[in-house]
Design a protein that fits this description.
By secondary structure, the chain is of the alpha+beta class. The protein is built from eleven helices and 13 strands. It has helices at 20-37, 39-43, 55-62, 72-75, 95-111, 135-143, 158-172, 262-283, 301-312, 325-328, 335-342; strands at residues 4-12, 16-19, 66-69, 120-124, 148-152, 177-185, 203-212, 221-230, 236-237, 259-260, 291-296, 352-359, 363-371. The strands form three sheets. A nine-stranded mixed β-sheet has the order 5-4-6-7-1-8-13-12-11, sandwiched between helices. It has a two-stranded antiparallel ribbon with strand order 2-3. The chain has a two-stranded antiparallel ribbon with strand order 9-10. α6 links the parallel β4 and β5. α5 (95-111) crosses α6 (135-143) and α8 (262-283) packs parallel to α9. The chain is globular, with a radius of gyration of 21 Å.
């Protein structure tokens, strides 16, 4: 048996950003037009008028201040409000693979490796732009990697579930070096015209390289233990199997995009995640005082504050539980990896942390790591 370790990580950040003020301006213009178009039905009591959004509401509800997106123009067009991501010819790299390639290369550079050194690629994301061939195999081809590749979808927990799968294969010796990559085009499955959720998501891609600890060429994080759990729930759901609106004539059904019963999610997910982390730590003999860092899924600041307090037994200091939500918004499976990638270099050898993601399913995955 081998000791798996994270030896490299990387984040691809889109060039385009949308601030809360920009988003609110576009949303409220859409609302004004919708209310005008449906004035008679609203007056007759057949429809409820839509209410405006505000930047203060967004920050209060989520802690989000802006987000990165692959296409800003389409999202901010009040007559459209979804990204323009044109279909590419089959002989060109897909947009998810292109994003993934950037994050993977950064992870490889950090570890001092090349694509040809990798013998497993897992593309773990909440939405994939096509059913097949697997995006992971396309990424494998672009990297010049060997071995095999496959896609994985466990919604917002995809990254930690992918890390468990890769770490288990490295530990057993069936693979030597694995990339777990999370290209998330969340803007394509978000309903930007729904006040309750129009601000939630952003786009990004992250990657981690996992290899045998003994093969590491520099600093690393040994993967001490991994644990995953699922429990079926309809409270977070997306009935569309691919990126939103493959063509403009697609049936405009609200349930074909991201939907969430936020209050039930808060009530049911928070205790599930807190107890999952605590039991995982207990199984490894870890105490709250052993934790230097909590890299949590970046869905909502209030949720993270609750979980952090339960796990640490006190209110964590900002550096102990870093948030990137205000800058990136919710990036589904990639959120905890962004937090890890941008807030882990300061840990000293021997210091420990937990990477944890949670979301639709319900699903929760935790990874206990130690700096080495």
């Amino acid at each position: 048996m081998y000791q798996p370790a994270i030896t490299g990580h990387g984040v691809f950040t889109p060039e385009q950003t949308i601030t809360n003020d920009e988003l609110v301006s576009a949303f409220n213009a859409y609302v004004t037009q919708w209310n005008t178009d449906n004035a008679e039905a609203i007056a007759a009591g057949e429809l409820d008028a839509m209410g405006p959004s505000s930047s203060d509401f967004i920050v209060s509800a989520s802690g989000i201040e802006h987000r990165y997106v692959m296409d800003k123009e389409g999202v901010l067009d009040p007559a459209r409000m979804y990204p323009r991501l044109p279909a590419r010819p089959d002989d060109q790299p897909g947009v998810m693979a292109e994003m993934a390639l950037d994050a993977c290369q950064k992870a490889l550079d950090m570890a001092g490796r090349q694509g040809s050194d990798v013998d497993l690629v897992i593309c773990a994301a909440s939405n994939h732009q096509r059913a097949y061939p697997a995006i992971a195999i396309e990424i494998q081809q672009l990297l010049g990697a060997t071995g095999f590749a496959f896609d994985m979808n466990v919604a917002c927990s995809s990254a930690t579930f992918g890390i468990q799968a890769a770490a288990d294969m490295v530990r057993s010796g069936s693979v030597q070096r694995a990339l777990v990559v999370n290209p998330e085009i969340c803007s394509a499955h978000l309903e930007w015209r729904d006040r309750d959720c129009h601000f939630i998501f952003g786009d990004v891609a992250t990657a981690v390289l996992i290899e045998r600890s003994e093969d590491a060429q520099g600093a690393r994080f040994d993967i001490v233990s991994t644990r995953c759990a699922t429990q079926f729930s309809n409270n977070i759901r997306n009935n569309n199997g691919f990126l939103r609106r493959t063509h403009d004539q697609m049936e405009d059904r609200r349930d074909m995009q991201f939907m969430q019963n936020g209050r039930k999610v808060f009530k049911e997910v928070l205790p599930m995640v807190s107890s999952h982390i605590l039991s995982h730590m207990q199984a490894e003999g870890w105490q709250a005082e052993d934790l230097k860092r909590l890299w949590l899924h970046q869905a909502n600041k209030t949720m993270n504050d609750f979980i952090g307090k339960k796990v640490m037994g006190r209110v964590p200091e900002p550096q102990e539980q870093p948030n990137i939500l205000q800058d990136y918004a919710n990036t589904s499976s990639a959120g905890s990896i962004i937090a890890f990638s941008k807030n882990s270099a300061d840990l000293a050898p021997g210091e420990c942390g937990v990477i944890c993601s949670f979301g639709a399913g319900y699903s929760v995955g935790s990874v206990l790591v130690r700096r080495a």
